[in-house]
Amino acid sequence: MKKVFIETYGCQMNQSDSEIVGSIVQKDGYELTTDLLEADIVFVNTCSIRENAEQRVNNRLVRFGHLKRKKPWLKIGVLGCMAERMKDDLFLEHKSVDIVVGPDAYRDIPRLLEEVESGIKVANVLLSEEETYSEIIPVRLGTNGVSAFISIMRGCENFCSYCVVPYTRGKERSRDYRTILDEAKDLFDKGYREITLLGQNVNSYLWKEGEDVNFAKLMEMVAKISPLLRVRFSTSHPKDISEELIKVIAKYDNICKYIHLPMQSGSSNMLKKMNRKYTREDYIQKIEMINKHIPNCALSTDIITGFCGETIEDHKETLSMMDLVGYDYAFMFNYSQRPNTIAEKKFVDDIPQEEKSRRLDEIIEKQRELSFESNKRDIGKEYEVLIEGESKRDKNELFGRSSQNKVVIFNKGELKIGGYINVRIKDCTSGTLIGEVIN
Ligand code: SAH
Ligand code: SF4
Ligand code: F3S
Questions:
Q1: Residue 439: pLDDT over 80
Q2: Would you kindly state where each structural domain of the chain is located, as residue ranges?
Q3: Arithmetic mean of pLDDT, 212-219
Q4: Which atom of ligand 3 is least distant from the CA of 164?
Q5: Does residue 262's CB lie within 6 angstroms of at least one atom of ligand 1?
Q6: Can you tell me which atom of ligand 2 is nearest the CA of 166?
Q7: Is the CB–ligand 2 distance for residue 165 below 6 Å?
Q8: Minimum-distance ligand to the CA of 83?
Q9: CA of 52 to the centre of ligand 3 (A)
Q10: Chain centre to alpha carbon of residue 189
Q11: Most buried in the list 46, 52, 108, 199, measured by CB within 10 Å?
């Protein structure tokens, strides 16, 4: 039986896609392996979001090329966003690549694997308006048996000016809610206790058949599967987050009190250029709406520094927004110009690399302080934690997360992974809470 090794880069949706690919090849008689050296086929599921994401993949492809010299029968496949963005050019840049498959063509992999056996190079990068891999039951890769992802939609049509995703992932489409519920129930029956519903903008999820099912309704249905099943979601575009959704999050204890709401920039000028379709004031209103209904809600964000024409004033507005919201966590990036995006065509990437990095450092430092403050506020409070695994630091400790998505470490005792436990927070660092078990 031929063995397939899958390596994944990029976002959670890509993780979820690799699990779909795993399921497709397994069904076709291939075996999955986690040992690169025993693989007959290597798939790299790639990301194009920033230049350094692509660079990382390029380096890996060079390494796989070396491996192929020792094992000439090895087949190398590039999947995902880089496959879609670069198409046949990948064959030119990496002589070792045999197969190129875009995000909507994974069902074609068994046929492509057969064709490639004759020594030719094969590609399928067709995008689809319907494909959601709806009925495919993903194999769970690298799982802790507690948390899993479920893709509820694909593609993106928001065309934020800096972003490559609408070009690599195609049109936005939602998956039949019944198959989402089936997958969630199946995971719960198998012992999973936390699922994260995934999409580039889950707020615009919509299944039109009989009575419309929007994202708020879907969340409610998933939350009702069992009070023991935690529900999370990502990502939520600020322009579309609704009061209806916030009320549903507030209503169900098992919907986690944590929202990732990427602001990108605190300056309305930048937001306009980014084509985000909200202003600084709109964003603040959304935050106020969340705080009104869910006072204990944790918030995280994505921030881009040094976008085209960003002034020091714009940058300061981002810093002041961070203070205003008091994010618990943030993902922070230097702007990286991507080929063929609106920003590449219309604006000049005019902030020097050094200045971008200087601004990024300021933002990272600000977030470190905010995260530490937020963790210090938790000292003395009690939280319910879902136990996810052993702490890397100490074998006698376990770690899990609070509903607010904060990592908590505590003593192992007789506790089991996958169970719930109440802890009181007694100490913290800027990244972790340290708790003591209270029941
Ligand atoms: N759909 C999500 C974002 C997915 S991409 C949303 O709209 O919120 C994840 C993050 O990568 C983005 O939020 C953005 O902060 C960052 N990103 C996207 N394109 C980028 C680029 N060209 N340079 C730097 N960061 C980028
Ligand atoms: Fe990119 Fe914007 Fe779509 Fe997010 S919403 S994936 S940032 S285009
Ligand atoms: Fe990267 Fe594609 Fe996800 S570009 S962030 S893997 S949708």
A1: no
A2: 3-124, 382-437
A3: 98
A4: 4
A5: yes
A6: 8
A7: yes
A8: 3
A9: 13
A10: 24
A11: 46
Query: pLDDT band at 393, cuts 50/70/90?
Result: confident
Quick one: which atom of ligand 3 is closest to the CA of 12?
Answer: 3
Provide, rounded to the nearest whole percent, the portion of the chain with pLDDT above 90: 98
d(CA 124, CA 88): 10
**CATH level 3 topology of 382-437:** OB fold (Dihydrolipoamide Acetyltransferase, E2P) (2.40.50)
User: Ligand 1 within 6 A of 335 CB?
Assistant: yes
Pairing between strand 420-428 and 433-437? Answer: antiparallel
pTM above 0.90, yes or no: yes
pLDDT digits (tens, 9 = 90+) for 53-100: 999 999 999 999 999 999 999 999 999 999 999 999 999 999 999 999
Q: What is the pLDDT of residues 305-350, one digit of tens each?
A: 999 999 999 999 999 999 999 999 999 999 999 999 999 999 999 9
What does the alpha-carbon distance between residue 141 and residue 129 come to, in Å, rounded to a whole number? 27
Mutate to test the pocket of ligand 2, among 81, 164, 165, 335 (most ligand atoms within 8 A of CB): 165
Residues 6+ apart with CB under 8 A from 177: 207, 213, 218, 221
- Contact between residue 137 and residue 161 where contact means Cβ atoms under 8 Å apart: no
Residue nearest to atom 11 of ligand 1 (CA): 49
Atom of ligand 3 nearest to the CA of 14: 6
Superfamily of structural domain 3-124: Methylthiotransferase, N-terminal domain (3.40.50.12160)
